[in-house]
Amino acid sequence: MSHSILDQIGNTPLVKSMVLNTNPNVTLYFKMEGDNPGGSVKDRAAFNMIKSALERGEIDQNSKLIEATSGNTGIALAMIAGIYQLDIELVMPENATIERVQTMKAYGAKVTLHPDGIEGARDYATDKVEKEGYFSFNQFANEDNWKAHYKTTGPEIWADTDGKVTHFVSSMGTTGTIMGTSTYLKEQSKNVQIVGVQPTDGSSIPGIRKWPKEYLPAIFDASKVDRVMEVSTEQARAMARRLAREEGIFSGMSSGGATTAALKLASELESGVIVSIICDRGDRYLSSDLFE
């Protein structure tokens, strides 16, 4: 039987926490998004954004595509754009790990590093769209971002927990994952609690942001998040290392942040079934000091 690599996006496994969760009345599952072919949860959104734009005739193989990204969305877009023979320029903060840059280039994308962080990268991409005729998917305002999770992530979690999920925990970056999954799960049961994770003031965690008001993703709807929990850089780093050493789950810092929040939540509950997103794989952080 022949399958496209695109058919391998989604249907990622749920893995039960066997060590870190110590509340016997709470089950904590990790949703292993690093199992996607591009190595992160962003494969879902990237595929839906490109496929939908092609179907609507907004882009074709002559289009000049550009996107600002902190990393994982860029890798996913580079992979999928290559399959569709689309040219894309990806703009990243200049402190991005070399693994991310090299992976995007391996898939055929042009990579531009910007000195002013993700906000600067977003401004650069917007300028190219307005002045040079580029097309941007603008993941921060693209309905196809969150709809990818409404169509896939939410239904998978509901089915794989037999409708028993009580809490969903997700780091918040573009907020597509939490918006789409929340929308679906709340349609199944209004009692499912949606928990968003963001950094404490002064903390820097790749993939998780506390956005300034002027950069707040347009797809974000605060009413779809029941609780926001904050984690520090130190907590996220330490938990990423613990996930690898104690659970055998090799992931990045944003997954450490989400797990920190999920474990705090588990310690507070009398009973429940928590699903927490493991956003990506740890191998794209090996050149950093995350695991030292």
TrEMBL record:
EC main group:
transferase
The scientific name of the source species is Nonlabens agnitus
Q: Which domain of life is it from?
A: Bacteria
Q: What molecular function terms (GO) are annotated for this protein?
A: cysteine synthase activity
User: By what name is this protein known?
Assistant: Cysteine synthase
Chain positions recorded as pyridoxal 5'-phosphate binding sites: N72, G173, T174, T175, G176, T177, S254
**Entry's NCBIfam families?**
cysKM (TIGR01136), cysM (TIGR01138), PRK11761.1 (NF008735)
- Keyword annotations: Amino-acid biosynthesis, Cysteine biosynthesis, Pyridoxal phosphate, Transferase
Give the stretches traversing the membrane: none
